[in-house]
Each structure stands twice: as C-alpha cells, then as structure tokens.
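We modelled the chain as a single entity of 73 amino acids. Its sequence is:
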Amino acid sequence: MKYLILMLLALAGWWIWRRLKGRPPAPPSRLPPGEEAMVACSHCGVYGPVSDMLRDGDGLHYCSEAHRRLGPG
C-alpha cells in the first residue's frame, strides 16, 4: 500500500511538472520593423492601424470623424 501511494505521488508530480513545462513562451512585446500597432474603433470596434485612426481628447481611437462625434458605442 505504501508503494502505491508513493507511485501515485510521483505520477502526480511528473504530470504537474509536464503541464508547467509545456506552457508556450510569452509573445514578444515589440513589433517587428515595418509593422504598426492595430487598435479598435471605440464606436464600432473595427480595427485599423494607429496612423489611420482619429483620436479624441480622452485618448480613444475612432475610424472616422462621424464615429468620433458620436462617441463610444
């Protein structure tokens, strides 16, 4: 009985170790050269490059002037 309990504890430890070891690495925080961050429109949710989006005084991004005037949706 003692060996069965030790075997189960060893198996549980091995299973936990394998699960923790198999996690994927964190994604890189920087964008590769030539790529631009994408943000969602605060009104409709459409994604676009930061340089094409309009920004209001609160720092929210919008895809068009009409959506900027309408505000967050």
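As a brief sanity check on the tokenised model: The beta strands are 38-40, 47-49, 54-55, 61-62. The first helix runs from residue 2 to 21.
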